[in-house]
Design a protein that fits this description.
3-stranded antiparallel β-sheet, 54% helix
Length: 324
């Protein structure tokens, strides 16, 4: 892939922090509560935000009585609570005109980029495991050049906003950054996210050739500090669909979700996740949903499907046409 080869990166090995048996030990977790053999995720609500959460002094999600299961679900529960607090904070800021003095869950630009990169390559691996057509599609050289120009400093703030603005907004809502467009901090974060996408495209290109040993070589990722131990784990679209399938199958008068409907949900969600370059539902915004629908409609007007994998896009356009 010419655009990726131009940079001349040589992969280097970087350490990966993993958790034993797929989860972190409870002793290292914040927001963890154990009482009478029951486990939960719990975060105290700041006093000034309580009026926006029905006066609650804390938010808690029950995780059940099985310790192993509770540990596995803890990070997602914490992320859900953090998002509720984040929404309350936005309401407070809108009502008072006051901006938060400090972030709730701060991450450096390198850490935000590292998490974004990891999400992209994890999603790449998941697509390869589910659909053989995915590996036949080559990364777009023009898109790669845009990301390369982005971290090289050649793009304006407006161009960076168009390229990675949605991911910047997700990081802001999550309480990871308060960088404002037009500042050096915002531009540095935008450039770091360009690095994440460029390196992810390099991995995609390598994996299409059967090489799964590649590691990020750009210093922003290779030298990034590790993410916090209790960083929220993403909740994927498949997680939500799996839960719904199980819920519909329970009970005496259960009405299981039809297999055809389940497949339709998964196909549409996979297409949306690929478009936004993240399968984490905790960071979805209304603007992304609108942008995705508009992009499908726009693509349908300007080009005809020409790849084997475009059959799904035709289906999405058909679905949109029925909804209008």
């Amino acid at each position: 892939m010419e655009a990726l080869a131009l940079q001349g990166f040589s992969p280097i090995l970087t350490s990966q922090i993993t958790s034993q048996n797929g989860f972190r030990m409870a002793g290292n977790l914040r927001h963890w509560k154990e009482r009478n053999g029951r486990y939960s995720a719990r975060i105290v609500v700041p006093p000034h935000l309580r009026p926006y959460l029905n006066g609650k002094t804390e938010l808690e999600i029950q995780l059940g009585g099985d310790r192993r299961t509770a540990l596995r679900h803890h990070a997602a529960a914490v992320a859900s609570i953090q998002r509720q607090i984040g929404i309350a904070r936005e309401k407070h800021e809108a009502a008072t005109g006051q901006k938060a003095k400090q972030l709730s869950f701060p991450l450096t630009a390198q850490q935000i980029a590292l998490r974004d990169y990891q999400n992209q390559i994890d999603f790449d691996a998941e697509l390869r495991a589910h659909d053989s057509r995915y590996a036949r599609i080559e990364p777009d050289p023009d898109e790669a050049r845009r990301f390369r120009d982005g971290f090289a400093g050649k793009l304006s703030d407006d161009e960076l906003q168009e390229l990675v603005g949605a991911r910047l907004e997700r990081a802001r809502i999550a309480g990871n950054t308060n960088a404002i467009k037009g500042t050096p901090e915002w531009r540095a974060l935008a450039q770091a996210l360009c690095v994440a996408s460029y390196e992810a495209m390099r991995r995609e290109d390598e994996r299409n050739e059967g090489d799964f040993s590649g590691q990020p070589s750009h210093p922003i990722l290779a030298n990034a500090p590790p993410l916090p131990e209790d960083a929220p784990a993403p909740v994927t679209f498949d997680n939500i669909i799996d839960d719904e399938v199980k819920r519909r199958a329970r009970g005496k008068n259960a009405k299981p979700l039809p297999a055809r409907t389940e497949k339709k949900y998964r196909d549409h969600c996979a297409a949306f996740a690929k478009w936004r370059k993240s399968k984490n539902t905790l960071t979805v915004t209304a603007a992304e949903g609108k942008g995705w629908i508009e992009s499908i409609a726009r693509r349908g007007r300007t080009q005809q499907p020409h790849r084997e994998g475009d059959a799904s896009e035709r289906a999405h356009r058909d679905e949109l046409g029925k909804a209008e």
